[in-house]
Amino acid sequence: MEATDLKHTPLYEEHLRSKGRMIPFTGYSMPVQYTGLVDEHHTVRRAAGLFDVSHMGELTVRGPGALAAVDGLVTNDLRGLLDGQARYTVCCNDAGTILDDLIIYRVAADDVLVVCNASNRAKIVGHFIARLGATHAVTDISDDTALIALQGPKAMEILRGAIGDGRIEELPAFHFADARVFNVECTVSRTGYTGEDGVEIFCPPGEAARIWRGLLGLGEPLGAKPAGLGARNTLRLECRMALYGNDIDETTNPLEAGLGWVVKFEKNDFVGKAALSTIKANGLTRKLVGFEMSDKSIARDHWQVVNDSNEQVGYVTSGSPSPTTGKNLGLAYVPAELSALGTALRLRDPERGRTGAAVVAKTPFYKRAAKP
User: Domain 285-361 is in which class?
Assistant: First the structure.
């Protein structure tokens, strides 16, 4: 895709002003880094980072019984959600493979917000319209929504200055509320993709730049900085948060991907339930595992897992040095018999033929300390 064909988020000029290095990403020109991936990664772990996630997709489902209708399209159980509560889930096809991972927000029983990955926006909007369009109003509001993620141990302190109301800090994880951020009506959600405390702020596109600048102004004295896609990837990998297109896609199912905790077989029927029930009954033939390199190699996405005969038996979905742990880490699909902790793995770069040694490791690789 030519640079001139790329879309810009409402924060594009802010990225240029902060000297962000822009790259094509899901049809948008997005910042991969500003001061450097490792520096931005540590900033989020130690202070706070500001991310532009306005490229994400948002859609609303409205009408009588909207929450129950959406519940039939996802694997997790939405029935217990209260107004102002959100839940992570996956959306499967009839074969039980993953169309996308989503966060579902209950505004009311008849008003639901769905956030999907940017690369799957058209697919998920089409899927929801095809399944629910005859009975409910499904509306793509992505272009009318800017989304800013403020993440890190100092995120809530920064946000308090932007809102002037400490009560927002009482918002539990995976809950959301309307709030005036720099006197702009926004929705603030206690969610994120970094493993740190923080929020995601839904705001009007025309006000996004002012909010971004305001948050940076409050945050910079505390060590906060803008952060790009590179740090977002290493942060989420350390916490074993799935990346669509790498760790999960329409060739994988949530059980083998380690997302069985969001598949609630006891609830009413949902798309993919029959297929997933059969998969569960038959047993998994492969699993997505975490690994640590036991040599100095850095396994990258798409490296192969090979057996003693040098035959491919699996593949790396995500691989990177870990700034927090100082280790070279990754995720890989391996045969079930190779999935136990401590199992030695042999990895191969299919382009250069070089190999590396790894061992199956416990995930998440990093988990923030609980508050006293």
Answer: mainly beta
